[in-house]
């Protein structure tokens, strides 16, 4: 019996022992970093990751909101029970933000995440043996140059918003802030060093020589505002080189809608130096549609999206219909009636052509029979304050639906909107889904027009109004209806071209392209009064370092923006 | 001598005398008889003769073997016979045995056998009411020889050696030991065991008698669990164990899980729920167990008890034992109930007329009570359970099946489950082998609701009709991301899951020696979840997005394997008992699943059953599917030693060396030691004579446990796919990048626990209980910390960064107040005071020192309601101090949070520096008070429960109780209680309310008629009302709808499920 017992005992032993003590992790649906790089396409997939992040960072919310909703042209009005969102849009409009605003934290985190990704991949790629993956050393240099340029683009956001920020080039190195001058020099050096290794006229959505040079233009143009040291000469030199084609071939698109329909039906506008491409279902320009379009707009634009009915132009008119008495703002009425861009938006054929940058007035259903345009017999109806009644956008902000009672008497404020408040911005066209054109248009990050305007600004600041006028007119001519150009052009009419006009013209040309706050700061007008905003009593041109970032990194110190918060 | 002490002694003396007087008649002859003998220089033989003279005692011995000629001197005054003999034979080697009036003498204890013949014995075992107890166990002490009573409670055992002692035991009754003496017929009356000192309590990889516990372990038998209809067996434990918080903010939702928290929250991300061990398998899923299948639940509260489960035991351990069969005639049980819910409290909102009179919004023509539209008036539950068990000496089995069906209080939730469970135990090879196993299978069909509808029901314009007046077959459409028609939401969709659970385990035990055995457990646990969703073409999302239906299927499977190998060794040396246990454990947890989704179906009739009929995914760039898989392993070596010296000193020590795949490469293995000791003071001479003390034991323990309830692969540097971007060729490819901030140092959280306790049993066990004081220190607490960005990749890192401390006192008291033939009253109180704090939230790398918790939702996003900072209590509210309103009705607050300082406008002038700590959302005191009455065949129990010393952030008053909230319906309070406020919501103490409450939580009336029938043995009919009434100052629905466990306790969720009163009617029959 005892032998049998011992036999059983060892039987169990034999059963148990093989399960042993191995605690290595088995992964199935994820890749560990040490085995990630296997071939050319894994390098490619890594290289493109910070671009994909960059689109999100630049065009998916926080960055756009902080750049435009703090300026004079856009608002996210409260519309009854919708759009109050804790008062954050009201605070942004009135320059009363705190260091706790989610969108400001997002504007800090977004670029730095992109920077960390670039740092990681620069370090990864540096250590990779490219020939082993079927690539050349030149490819490696080009990839690293792209990542450095992309990283510089992220740093431009940071210097623009926060000025003195940490310069990190390593994923795990905790660092204190550098001065704005150091940040400036870092960006300048990075771009200049990367430039020779980049391609000319690279594929859409990728940094190339033109793009890197354009970032230098942006850097130098704003140098005085950011660091106190003017660099207009350097700015002008790079802008001229780009225009001259030294960094690749670019042309002003003869069609004012051209740069913004790049990507539709295979069209690529030669004007775009950098554009973020889109494709429906794959990479969509989703936030922009949702934030701006009314719930019912899909019936007039022909798609199946919802929309949040959020962001519109600020109103040009008061409750009585008079134009608001401010130098800034009034974006819709800043356009001349002769300007083609001011026309109400409509598609003009099935090929994706359209006219107008705005939705205003009565909305009509899409003309499904023709495949473009509207069916003026079918009005789109409202669903909230104007429930069941015609939906007609007005260039005013007030509680018209309650007139003469209720909240009508509260007047015209960001807080007193309703569902049809505000002219809708549709420069980035939402084309018919049934024509397979919806969500294929690119986001235009840098256009050649910006180089013309930058060069013109350098000349204007150097008192060369004639030179400035000529450059601006190269771009502007396409905007005007036949026969009206003579009255609109600056050339030969330089008296028109004042500081105010220059600021207005920047507003018209780059409306909604995430330029406005930077331009107003550079022109010293960011603290001025406009509709529903009094003149700032404190300097608001620098955002506070978000409290969460200060808390997470003990080496960070508050900036002027923190001291100026409410 | 101080007066107090004299009084005490007098009291004790009086009591002792009283008890003596009452019970003297019941004592046996040997104990009653007192002798006085004073002899010098006599032989033992002469002494024995003198004793025989003075008494009826007769000595039996052999002159040739026993030396009775030794000369001794004796001086006994009024002593019992045993005392006299012990003294007399001291050092002589002579053993004696008193059997009634016969006294046997021998040179060795087994020598008695020669003196008396083996004989048979029989008898009947009954309970105190005289009812026979079938299935009671009768064992000869120190042997495995024994029998089980038959259906009439009779037993028979042949060949009983003389001098034997019978041990009679029956579940729920006090075990008894009876000397056989000369009797051949012994009838036993078993007493119900209120205290259960001899009850065997599971302690993890073994069991001990309750009286031998050295750590804080509380076991609740099935008969003491709460009665009624429950969604989780854990709810039956609610309030039964001091220090154990059971909560369920949506108790009436049959698909909602129950939170359990033992001795306070102390983890941030590692989870605060205990480890569940079902029939010895760690990590068991209680959804697999029917409430009627549970024999007992044992809570290992302190670190010393739990440490044997190592890295998963830091939140305590709950051991669940399922019922076993018993030898004897087959017993069949039928247990069934039906139950119904009614709404106990509704939000007090404006009527349509009031809504319109306050000009909140326009009249949409309808008059709708949205809340009532969501209530199912004819809700009903039913639960049927049938079991059969039986067996013989070598084989026992039990099999049970149950069916449960519940249509809930809301119009969407339903649950139907069917389960079967079988267990067997087989002895073989003359007791060398014991094979046993369990097999359980359960399937559940769950239909889910959406708690968001109840928030809509409060805030929606009550003049909106449910259906569109223009098209009564369609729902009234609403727009905006946070507004929807709640009836449409629930009716125009199907959202549910089919769950199947199974556990199979198989155990082989080998009794290698009488005192050495080894056991292997193999177990497999499966859970399959098949989620199915269909949103019809009339649902809001379909209408809004111009689609015709959306279907989604998801199947996920969890498979766990367990292999455990144990060895047990027992030894007795003199008065010392030693138990040793050692073992090895391997557990593997696998998870894999996939989903597929499609939209735009030609017909709603397909629902989710024909995914390829949809056209949505045909478009380029769409995919609508995903799959995933992960795995985790735990490996451990462990051992435990128990030492018992004469029941006076008890020591235990254990160690677990455990590793887990999830831990960082540098920290795979950890050591979890524990030690505990107990001192049975009642065995000490100075207390032994205090006869009102039956048992008194002091305990002290120390234990280290771990916590590893965080996501897999958290420590690895991983690259994962993100969105798509165009490559050089213009093709859209998926991009890859770092998925996380990797942390190779990631390790388990460590919990160090100290416990000091006392167990007592007084006044003939009528009053008993235990008290404990504890400290739990959490070290290396894991959190998603705000990482400095730059330079990190993400703004959060998963790391060991904090420490926590919980301190508390617990008290359990049971009192058998009245025990008469026809009437009894028992009561018990369970209470605890627990304070949990965040000790430190920083380490060498990360130094933020605080975290903001619970971001209050939009609209308004008013910020974080709570802040945890070094030294603050878990659940500390952080915000402004309310200072009334200004003349415009705007909320004013006190500058710097100091009452009496400057008042400033909260919205325009409030600063971060004005925020301060306002209160705490974690109840410090929990109390439950159980009362059980029996009168003849009726029983009545009243169970009160309360939580005290905490606050609740009433977000309903904040979001729907202020007139500033635009365009939505409001609580009536907006115009009365809060009428002075015209500004919007800010986080301030105005919205903080006392959460204290006490409620009659469970009222059960039962009737168990005595029925003389051959067809069935027992019948019980009962009715239960749950949530009978609540006393509280809280103005929300009910304090129990507010979560009080975890790290963010005491905040009202705006999406709150209805609170109900539940009525149950049940029957239990034993055949």
Structural overview:
The complex is a heterodimer of chains A (566) and B (1071). Chain A is mainly alpha-helical and 566 residues long. Chain A is 38% helix and 7% strand. Chain A has helices at 2-16, 40-59, 62-68, 88-93, 102-127, 137-162, 180-194, 209-221, 223-227, 232-243, 286-292, 297-301, 448-461, 465-476, 485-488, 499-509, 516-522, 547-552, 560-563; strands at residues 31-32, 74-76, 272-276, 311-313, 346-347, 354-355, 358-359, 361-362, 364-366, 374-379, 392-393, 424-425, 443-447. The radius of gyration of chain A is 27 Å and the shape is globular. The model of chain A has no long low-confidence stretch (mean pLDDT 93). Chain B is mainly beta. Chain B has 13 helices and 56 strands. Chain B has a 22-stranded antiparallel barrel. In chain B, strands 15-20-21-18-19 form a five-stranded mixed β-sheet. The radius of gyration of chain B is 34 Å and the shape is elongated. The two termini of chain B are 63 Å apart. β1 (31-32) of chain A pairs antiparallel with β37 (718-726) of chain B.
Q: Give the spatial strand order of the biggest sheet of chain A.
A: 2-4
Structural class computed from helices and strand pairing of chain B: mainly beta
In terms of DSSP E residues, the strand content of chain B is over 45%
Give the N-to-C terminal Cα separation of chain B: 63 Å
The overall average pLDDT of chain B, rounded, is 87
Per DSSP, the total helix count of chain A is 19
Question: Looking at the chains present, what oligomeric state does this protein adopt?
Answer: heterodimer
Number of helices of chain B: 13
Question: Roughly how many Å is the radius of gyration of chain B?
Answer: 34 Å
The percent range for helix content of chain B is: under 10%
């Amino acid at each position: 019996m005892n032998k049998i017992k011992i036999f059983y005992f060892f039987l169990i032993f034999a059963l148990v022992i093989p399960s042993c003590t191995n605690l290595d992790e088995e992964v199935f649906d994820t890749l560990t970093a040490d085995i990630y790089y296997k071939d050319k396409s894994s390098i490619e997939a890594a290289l493109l990751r910070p671009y994909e992040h960059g689109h999100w960072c630049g065009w998916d919310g926080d960055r756009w909101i902080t750049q435009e909703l703090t300026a004079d042209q856009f608002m996210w009005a409260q519309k009854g029970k919708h759009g109050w969102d804790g008062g954050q849009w009201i605070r942004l409009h009135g320059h009363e933000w705190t260091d706790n605003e989610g969108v400001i934290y997002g504007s800090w985190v977004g670029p730095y995440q992109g920077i960390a990704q670039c740092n990681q991949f620069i370090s990864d790629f540096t250590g990779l043996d490219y020939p082993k993956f079927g690539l050349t050393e030149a490819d490696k240099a080009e990839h690293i140059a792209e990542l450095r340029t992309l990283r510089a683009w992220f740093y431009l956001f940071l210097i623009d918003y926060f000025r003195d920020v940490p310069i990190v080039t390593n994923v795990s190195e905790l660092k204190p802030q550098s001065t704005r001058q150091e940040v400036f020099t870092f960006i300048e050096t990075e771009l200049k060093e990367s430039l020779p290794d980049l391609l000319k006229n690279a594929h859409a959505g990728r940094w190339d020589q033109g793009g890197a040079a354009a970032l230098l233009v942006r850097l130098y143009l704003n140098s005085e505002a950011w660091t106190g040291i003017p660099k207009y000469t350097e700015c002008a030199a790079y802008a001229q080189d780009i225009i001259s084609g030294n960094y690749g071939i670019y042309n002003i698109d003869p069609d004012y809608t051209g740069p913004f329909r790049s990507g539709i039906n295979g069209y690529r506008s030669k004007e775009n130096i950098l554009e973020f491409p889109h494709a429906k279902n794959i990479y969509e320009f989703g936030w922009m549609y949702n934030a701006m379009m009314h719930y019912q707009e899909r019936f007039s634009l022909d798609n199946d999206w919802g929309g949040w009915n959020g962001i519109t132009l600020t109103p040009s008119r008061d409750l009585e219909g008079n134009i608001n008495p401010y130098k800034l703002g009034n974006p819709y009425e800043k356009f001349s009636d002769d300007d083609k861009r001011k026309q109400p938006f409509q598609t003009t054929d099935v090929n994706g052509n359209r006219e107008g940058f705005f939705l205003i007035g009565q909305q009509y259903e899409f003309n499904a029979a023709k495949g473009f345009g509207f069916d003026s017999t079918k009005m789109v109806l409202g669903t909230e304050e104007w429930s069941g009644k015609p939906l007609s956008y007005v260039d005013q902000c007030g509680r018209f639906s309650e007139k003469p009672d209720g909240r009508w008497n509260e007047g015209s404020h960001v807080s007193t909107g309703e569902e049809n408040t505000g002219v809708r911005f549709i420069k980035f066209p939402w084309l018919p889904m049934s024509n397979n054109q919806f969500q294929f248009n690119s986001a235009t990050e840098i256009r050649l027009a910006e180089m013309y305007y930058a060069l013109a600004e350098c000349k204007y600041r150097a008192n060369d109004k004639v030179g400035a006028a000529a450059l601006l007119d190269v771009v502007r001519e396409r905007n005007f209806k036949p026969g009206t150009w003579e009255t609109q052009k600056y050339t030969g009419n330089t008296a028109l071209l004042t500081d105010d006009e220059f600021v207005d013209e920047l507003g018209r040309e780059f409306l909604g392209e995430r330029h406005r706050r930077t331009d107003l700061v550079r022109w010293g007008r960011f603290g001025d009064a406009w509709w529903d905003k009094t003149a700032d009593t404190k300097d608001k041109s620098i955002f506070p370092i978000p409290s969460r970032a200060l808390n997470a990194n003990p080496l960070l110190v508050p900036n002027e923006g923190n001291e100026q918060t409410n | 001598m101080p007066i107090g002490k004299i009084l005490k002694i007098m009291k004790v003396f009086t009591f002792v005398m009283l008890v003596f007087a009452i019970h003297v008649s019941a004592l046996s002859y040997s104990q009653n008889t007192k002798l006085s003998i004073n002899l010098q220089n006599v032989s033992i033989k002469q002494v024995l003769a003198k004793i025989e003279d003075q008494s009826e005692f007769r000595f039996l011995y052999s002159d040739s073997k026993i030396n009775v000629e030794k000369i001794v001197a004796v001086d006994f005054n009024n002593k019992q016979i045993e005392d006299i003999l012990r003294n007399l034979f001291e050092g002589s080697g002579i053993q004696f045995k008193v059997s009634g009036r016969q006294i046997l003498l021998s040179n060795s204890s087994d020598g008695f056998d020669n003196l008396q013949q083996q004989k048979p014995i029989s008898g009947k075992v009954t309970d105190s009411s005289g009812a026979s107890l079938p299935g009671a166990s009768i064992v000869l002490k120190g042997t495995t020889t024994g029998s089980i009573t038959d259906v009439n409670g009779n037993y028979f055992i042949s060949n009983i050696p003389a001098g034997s002692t019978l041990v009679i035991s029956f579940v729920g009754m006090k075990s008894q030991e009876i000397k056989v003496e000369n009797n051949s017929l012994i009838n036993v009356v078993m007493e119900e065991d209120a205290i259960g000192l001899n009850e065997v309590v599971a302690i993890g990889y073994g069991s001990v008698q309750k009286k031998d516990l050295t750590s804080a372990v509380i076991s609740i038998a099935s008969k003491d669990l709460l009665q009624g209809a429950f969604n989780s067996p854990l709810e039956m434990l609610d309030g039964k164990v001091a220090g154990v918080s059971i909560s369920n903010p949506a108790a009436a939702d049959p698909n909602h899980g129950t939170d359990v928290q033992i001795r306070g929250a102390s983890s941030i991300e590692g989870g605060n729920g205990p480890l569940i061990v079902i029939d010895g398998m760690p990590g068991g899923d209680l959804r697999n167990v029917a409430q009627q299948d549970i024999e007992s639940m044992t809570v290992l509260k302190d670190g010393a008890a739990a440490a044997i489960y190592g890295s998963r035991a830091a939140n305590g351990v709950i051991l669940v034992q399922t019922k076993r069969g018993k030898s004897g005639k087959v017993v069949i049980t039928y247990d069934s109930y039906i139950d119904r819910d009614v709404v106990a409290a509704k939000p007090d909102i404006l009527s349509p007329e009031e809504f319109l009179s306050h000009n909140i919004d326009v009249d949409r023509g309808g008059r709708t009570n949205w809340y009532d539209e969501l209530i199912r008036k004819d809700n009903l539950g039913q639960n049927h359970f049938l079991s059969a068990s039986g067996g013989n000496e070598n084989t026992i089995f039990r099999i049970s099946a149950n069916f449960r069906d519940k249509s809930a209080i809301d119009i969407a939730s339903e649950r139907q489950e069917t389960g079967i469970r079988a267990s067997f135990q087989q002895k073989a090879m003359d007791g060398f082998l014991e094979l046993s196993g369990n097999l359980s299978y359960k399937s559940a069909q769950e239909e889910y609701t959406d708690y968001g509808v109840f928030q809509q029901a409060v805030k929606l314009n009550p003049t909106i009709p449910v259906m569109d007046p223009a098209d009564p077959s369609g729902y009234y459409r609403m727009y905006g991301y946070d507004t929807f028609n709640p009836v449409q939401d629930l009716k125009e969709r199907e959202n549910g899951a089919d769950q199947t659970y199974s556990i199979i385990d198989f155990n082989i035990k080998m009794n290698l020696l009488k005192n050495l055995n080894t056991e292997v457990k193999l177990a497999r646990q499966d859970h399959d979840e098949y989620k199915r969703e269909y949103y019809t073409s009339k649902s809001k999302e379909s209408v809004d997005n111009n689609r015709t239906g959306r279907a989604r299927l998801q199947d996920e499977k969890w498979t766990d394997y367990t292999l455990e190998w144990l060895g047990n060794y027992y030894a007795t040396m003199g008065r010392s008992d030693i138990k040793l246990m050692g073992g090895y454990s391997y557990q593997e947890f696998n998870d894999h699943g996939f989903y597929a989704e499609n939209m735009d179906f030609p017909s709603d009739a397909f629902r989710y059953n024909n995914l390829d009929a949809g056209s949505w995914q045909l478009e380029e760039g769409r995919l609508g599917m995903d799959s995933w898989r992960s795995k985790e392993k735990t490996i451990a070596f462990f051992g435990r030693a128990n030492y018992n010296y004469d029941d006076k000193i008890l020591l235990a020590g254990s160690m677990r060396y455990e590793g887990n795949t999830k831990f960082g490469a540098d920290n795979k293995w950890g050591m979890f030691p524990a030690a505990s000791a107990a001192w049975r003071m009642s065995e000490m001479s100075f207390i032994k004579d205090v006869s009102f003390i039956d048992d008194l034991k002091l305990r002290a323990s120390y234990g280290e446990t771990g916590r590893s309830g965080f996501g897999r692969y958290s420590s690895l540097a991983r690259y994962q796919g993100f969105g798509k971007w165009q490559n050089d060729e213009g093709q859209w490819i998926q991009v890859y990048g770092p998925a996380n901030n990797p942390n190779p140092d990631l390790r388990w959280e460590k919990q160090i626990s100290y416990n000091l306790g006392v167990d007592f049993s007084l006044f003939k066990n009528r009053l008993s209980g235990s008290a404990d004081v504890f400290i739990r220190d959490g070290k290396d607490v894991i959190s998603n910390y705000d990482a400095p960005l730059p330079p990190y990749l993400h703004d959060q890192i998963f790391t060991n960064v904090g420490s926590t401390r919980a301190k508390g006192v617990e008290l359990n008291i049971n009192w058998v107040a009245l025990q008469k033939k026809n009437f009894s009253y028992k009561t018990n109180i369970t209470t605890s005071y627990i304070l949990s704090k965040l000790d430190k939230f920083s380490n060498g790398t990360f130094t933020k020192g605080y975290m903001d918790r619970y971001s209050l939702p939009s609209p308004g996003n008013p910020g974080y309601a709570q802040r945890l900072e070094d030294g603050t209590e878990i659940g500390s509210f952080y915000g402004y101090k309310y200072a009334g309103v200004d003349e415009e009705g705007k909320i004013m607050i006190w500058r710097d949070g100091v009452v009496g300082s400057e008042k400033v406008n909260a919205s325009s002038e409030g600063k971060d520096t004005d925020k301060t700590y306002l209160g705490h959302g974690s109840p410090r005191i929990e109390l439950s008070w159980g009362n059980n009455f029996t009168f003849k065949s009726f029983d009545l129990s009243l169970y009160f429960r309360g939580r005290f010393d905490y606050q609740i952030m009433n977000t309903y008053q904040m979001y729907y109780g202020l007139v500033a909230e635009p365009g939505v319906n409001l609580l009536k309070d907006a115009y009365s209680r809060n009428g002075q406020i015209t500004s919007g919501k800010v986080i301030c103490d105005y919205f903080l309310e006392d959460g204290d409450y006490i409620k009659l939580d469970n009222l059960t009336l039962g009737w168990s008629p005595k029925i003389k029938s051959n067809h069935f043995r027992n019948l019980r009919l009962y009715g239960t009302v749950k949530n009978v009434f609540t006393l509280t100052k809280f103005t929300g629905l009910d304090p129990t709808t507010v979560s009080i466990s975890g790290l963010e306790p005491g905040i009202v969720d705006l999406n709150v499920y209805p609170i109900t009163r539940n009525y149950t009617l049940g029957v239990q029959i034993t055949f």
